[in-house]
Design goal:
Layout: H1 2-23, H2 26-29, H3 35-44, H4 48-55, H5 84-91, E1 98-103, E2 109-112, H6 113-117, E3 122-129, E4 135-144, H7 145-151, E5 160-172, E6 175-184, H8 185-188, E7 194-199, E8 202-203, E9 213-215, E10 228-234
Bound molecules: ligand MTE and molybdenum atom.
Molybdenum atom binds near residues 130 and 222.
């Protein structure tokens, strides 16, 4: 009995002490030049590896109720690609569309939209955060990306899934520059990473990436490639665009855009 009381006192005392320490933590410790401040500044540059450790490979992004969809999904970036090959697909109502999966795989393949719609589907209501500072909650339906890639037989050294898109953003010296993006195979196999062909219970509109766009729910909007034509598995991001892993990454954005 006596022991228990002492222990309770001890715990209460410890709790008070730690509250005080926390309450007073920030001002003195973050003062200019302190070691702690240096540490926090370094923490700001968290590398991809450390972010991955903190996030964990399987943490889920928050999902929402249908009642929380209070706005249309705001289209951003390209909203109506003018590329000839894409216009032909629109004219054919995407019946002629095939998604190519190639690169570091033993069984390169291509699948139609009808085939994708017949694969196991997942629906999720999530929040899309654009780096420009706006967010939208929308409902996405698609097929999980991981099993689709695994069916193509990724080589043991494959690390990235690189998405090629139909939309040309600018004309470079060597020709048109189309949007592209990449994620690693951890994110590709994450349960919420889907190739979406449906949005808010409708076929995915052209403005939001028809016929197929990826959802990578724990990262920022620019990672979520729209108008996907091809997914290439690769050991390295060299040789795609400028090598940064995406159209915006080649222009200075972070490759790992964790939220
Ligand atoms: N192919 C392609 N994908 C893209 C873009 C783009 O311009 N082209 N813009 C990105 C950006 S910055 C955002 S915020 C989202 C916008 O998706 P939404 O049009 O469905 O809102 O798509 C991303 N994927
Ligand atoms: Mo964005």
């Amino acid at each position: 009995m006596r022991l228990r009381i002492d222990r309770r006192r001890f715990l209460t005392g410890a709790a008070v002490a730690s509250t005080t320490a926390l309450g007073g933590c920030f001002d003195p410790l973050v003062a200019n030049g302190s070691q702690v401040r240096g540490f926090l500044e370094k923490a700001n540059d968290l590398t991809y590896r450390v972010q991955r450790l903190i996030l964990g490979a399987d943490t889920l992004a928050p999902e929402f109720a249908a009642s929380e969809i209070r706005q249309p999904m705001r289209p951003n970036g390209t909203t109506d690609p003018q590329d000839d090959d894409y216009r032909a697909l629109v004219t054919a109502n995407f019946d002629t569309y095939r998604l190519t999966i190639d690169g570091a795989v033993s069984k390169p393949t291509s699948v139609s939209l009808a085939e994708l719609r017949n694969m196991p589907a997942r629906t999720q209501i999530t929040r899309h955060d654009c780096v420009e500072g706006w967010s939208c909650i929308a409902k996405w339906t698609g097929t999980p990306l991981g099993p689709l890639l695994d069916a193509a037989g990724p080589s043991a050294s494959a690390r990235y899934a690189v998405f090629s898109c139909f939309d040309t953003l600018e004309n470079g010296f060597t020709g048109p520059i189309r949007y592209y993006e990449s994620i690693d195979l951890h994110d590709a196999r994450h349960p919420q990473t889907i190739l979406a062909y449906g949005m808010n219970d409708q076929p995915l509109p052209v403005a939001n990436g028809a016929p197929l766009r990826v959802r990578v729910e724990r990262q920022l909007g620019y990672k979520m490639a729209k108008y996907i034509s091809r997914i290439t598995l690769a050991e390295s991001l060299d040789g795609f665009g400028e090598g940064g892993g995406g159209y915006w990454e080649d222009r200075g954005y972070e490759w790992f855009a964790g939220i």
